[in-house]
Amino acid sequence: MKYSVNSVWENKDVYDVAVIGAGHAGCEAALAAARLGMRTIVFTVSMESVAMMPCNPNIGGTSKGHLVKEVDALGGEMGKVIDRTFIQSKMLNRSKGPAVHSLRAQADKQEYSKAMRMVLENQPGLDLKQAEVVDILVEDGKVTGVQIISGAIYRCKAVILCTGTYLKARCIYGDVSIETGPNGLQASTYLSDCMKKLGVSMYRFKTGTPARIDRRSIDFSKMEEQKGDERITPFSFTTDPESVQREQISCWLTYTNEKTHEIIRNNLDRSPLFSGAIEGTGPRYCPSIEDKVVKFADKNRHQVFIEPEGEYTNEMYIGGMSSSLPEDVQYEMYRSVPGLEHAKIVRNAYAIEYDCIDARQLYPTLEFRKVEGLYSAGQFNGSSGYEEAAAQGLVAGINAAQKILGREQLILDRSQAYIGVLIDDLVTKESHEPYRMMTSRAEYRLLLRQDNADQRLTKIGYEIGLVSEERYENLLEKEKMITSEIERVEHVNVGTSEKVQNLLIQYGSTPLNSGATIADLIRRPELHYNILAPIDENRPQIPEEVAEQVDINIKYDGYIKRQMRQVEQFKKMEKKKIPEDIDYNDVKSLRIEAVQKLSAQRPVSIGQASRISGVSPADISVLLVYLESMRRA
Amino acid sequence: MFFEQENISSAEYAGTREGADMMKVTETIAAISTAMSDSGIGIVRISGPDAFEIADRIYKGKKTLSSQPSHTVHYGWIKDGENTIDEVLVMLMRGPHSYTGEDTVEIDCHGGVFVVRKILETVLKNGARAAEPGEFTKRAFLNGRMDLSQAEAVIDVIHSKNEYALKNSVSQLKGSVQRKISAMREEILYHTAYIESALDDPEHISLDGYGDTLVEKVEELLKELKKLIDTADNGRMMQEGIRTVIVGKPNAGKSSLLNALVGEERAIVTEIEGTTRDILEEHIQLNGVSLNIMDTAGIRKTEDVVEKIGVDRAKNQAEDADLIIFVVDSSRNLDENDFEIMEMIQDKNVIVLLNKSDLETKVTKEMIQEHLDKPMIEISAKEEEGIYELEQTVKEMFFRGEIAFNDEVYITNVRQKEALEQAFTSLKQVKRSIEDGMPEDFYTIDLMDAYEALGSITGETIGEDLVNEIFSKFCMGK
């Protein structure tokens, strides 16, 4: 749709950064920019939808928990807000290695949204404005402002697009198709055309959400109770762990059955996904229940998690059963599940289709290559998930501010953070579905743990200016304690006294023939730092999180060192920058496919080039020699 | 972490130090740097920061090499553990005064394909990695040892060597080996994806007891890998040897020749699987010289589509051959097909066989000499006469160094064996991790390493394999 209005006027307030959208990406972007001294304005189609969670009521989860920790370590807000508003918390994968421990909290959706909105409202230098942005103003390839639906123009130096799933959004179930954003909110209709006008190429993606069911209509006696952790770990490194030990609300587990599947199979022809009414590409990792039934036909049941949407609501989220089947089928299908026989549906399940961009048009800074000062983050970039959005929003906010301040842009690489993996994947790899973070996408995941996000990133946050002096000092103190305690346990020999042998036997460990150090014992899989306390007499008092670091660093030392060596190699390739104006046609002996891919994507470094599919190691060698000859010329 | 705000343009780029600094490599590489013939001396070259250290690990002489001055030669032995491999001369060159500009050690041995290769393998076992095609040249250039005018030539070398290696590594790999490796990779990927799905979605997929299942699988895989490594040791994984192609017009007696060569109790090392219908291939040893012999479709002008494909393939094979045996039917007059073949093989290593010496002769040596100046032998493939002379001629050419192995084939084989061993080590590590009770997420690190190593043999990269496997095989939640 082309926008036209007669009453154009220019708002005379001065802004540095305009953020379009106040979802999870928009909130982090706006806060980061404002905290770095930028006069910032956030536009949202509805003030009620600030930091809204239109789908699942969780923050965190596998690998997403890592993202939240990293956002927090850099000075972002998501971790702090969820620490104040969760109603249940669980460390997933606790029985696995430390690299895959992931924190997940059930959020009180409304409380989360309110708390985040409050942070924004009270942030000096940050203004909120309810309005649909219809145009991005660009002069000489640079952003100069935005225009809103009233015709008003707001001038600014940088714009961050965080429009989520609102662009040309369409919600669908059965033969019902309504042009709205999530939760029936107003879609954003004009901005897509503005993007096309700017020469940005777009994708159409699809995602979906399950029904919400009235708590009073559910029979929980037929379900298994899912409780939270006894000892809760907070997300934010700044949250006092004692402050989050509070009463939790349970989730519930039930299962679909053959009858459910039969209902679905009998009605597949009425699903817009199978009839072709939905053209967008859906994510493979969160399939609708009809997808699961078709694709995994041999499974006779699927798990269904019933999760509260908040403390002061009866709405329950039906995890595992997202759908776009017609309403009558939804009733029949949900009611076939044990415990849901009398279910009253408060909100129907639906699929949503929306416009997003091919993020390969962005620099790893999240700035558009074609338009200076235009950044984008979140689902608009083809990702999925609140946490992925927040992480990008933070980086885009930082970079927009840094650019205006004439400072260096922040690019986290794949060896530094999940955020680095996320953004690198988005801007480098072709994707035909919404991108979700996964721990298997991080090649150096042993180094990128949720427990050491502060050690990896807080210094960077401090240098940028988002982390306080005090917090940074605390980190340095913690690191000092870790180093000296590791040093100590490497040198304390426990001898072979009866006390030592008895303790070893008690934990099923082989007694010692000759002495060993505490560190040697920590390396045994059945032992760890804390249980060795009785035989480690001069052990200093150290905080639990320091003890954890000592344990992990010693126990997995071999693997950690190995990944560190790989990282060294990796860094070399990342540091090797490719000149902006290189003409790949001039590089003799590059294969045609490589020339095409490289010319289209214009990687910033040899490292990034090597990750583009269709570029071979031989092409990289050829490119290196070419760059060296350019350097010498 | 931080990225320069101003994107560098090529003008600014010129003269930056950044380029040169980054080029400094930490890995030490090694390769055989002489042609793989039995002639003269064989040289194994090691280049990189650990070159001296690695050489010291396997060299036994009067002195430690690392303590010796640059540009000196030392006499001693190369040992693989307790076993002495060969008596050698070792030449030391410290960077930047070497071909690559890095610390370089050259081990000159008595040659002999087997010995050179054994030395290379020992070097690799002790910390070097097999050089990629063209890598010495690449390093020489990047380290400023070659001048700018040579840049294009360097790129050409890298390009052509890579193309060649790629063609070799996959096409020379026996079909059966390729299938086995692919099957192993599939298995590894499946288990990795299962574990990763469970890690990503612990509430839907459980790993209870999975270690026991996996350890069994890993043991099976280790056994199979061991077999493959042994195969590689015997040189049977690759179709290596002097690539010899028999050409001639139809009914010249090519197949009888092949039968004669193979038939007499000569050791047939392998039966090559997966050979194309139109090209038969045999691996034979002539007193220590390996020949990889291909019999081709008779070359003639033809309208028949199927036959034409055969003829074209024969021509391609001849093009790539190290040695061509041109069989002429001396009982029939030379015709346009013979002339076409002679034209085609002018610049090749050729032995001409005047076959059917038992019949009335219509073609003489002189008649061929006019068109093709190559060694000629009169034989009767049917009566098996002249075969001995053929053998002698091949051997002489080999020992004079006129025909040589394409060294890339050997090197490729060494690289592939190295990859097999890497995969073996990685799977061993998986087994150890399971037995030690390490958490499951550690298994997949080594599983993926094994997967990658095996992929490097069949020329496949990882890409999005794992993520695709996870989504296609396992039902994730939400």
TrEMBL record, chain A:
Pfam families in the record: GIDA, GIDA_C_1st, SAM_GIDA_C
Subcellular location: Cytoplasm
Gene3D superfamilies recorded: FAD/NAD(P)-binding domain, GidA associated domain, C-terminal subdomain, tRNA uridine 5-carboxymethylaminomethyl modification enzyme MnmG/GidA
All residue ranges annotated as the tRNA uridine 5-carboxymethylaminomethyl modification enzyme C-terminal subdomain domain in the record: 554-625
Residues where NAD(+) binds: 282-296
Cofactor(s) listed in the protein's UniProt record: FAD
Family matches, as InterPro entries: FAD/NAD-bd_sf, GIDA_C_N, MnmG, MnmG-rel, MnmG-rel_CS, MnmG_C, MnmG_C_subdom, MnmG_C_subdom_sf
Keyword Kinase (UniProt): no
SMART domains found in the cross-reference section: GIDA_assoc_3
Main location: cytoplasm
UniProt keyword list: Cytoplasm, FAD, Flavoprotein, NAD, tRNA processing
Entry's family note: Belongs to the MnmG family.
Subunit-structure text: Homodimer. Heterotetramer of two MnmE and two MnmG subunits.
Protein name: tRNA uridine 5-carboxymethylaminomethyl modification enzyme MnmG
Organism classification: Bacteria, Bacillati, Bacillota, Clostridia, Eubacteriales
Gene from which the chain derives: mnmG
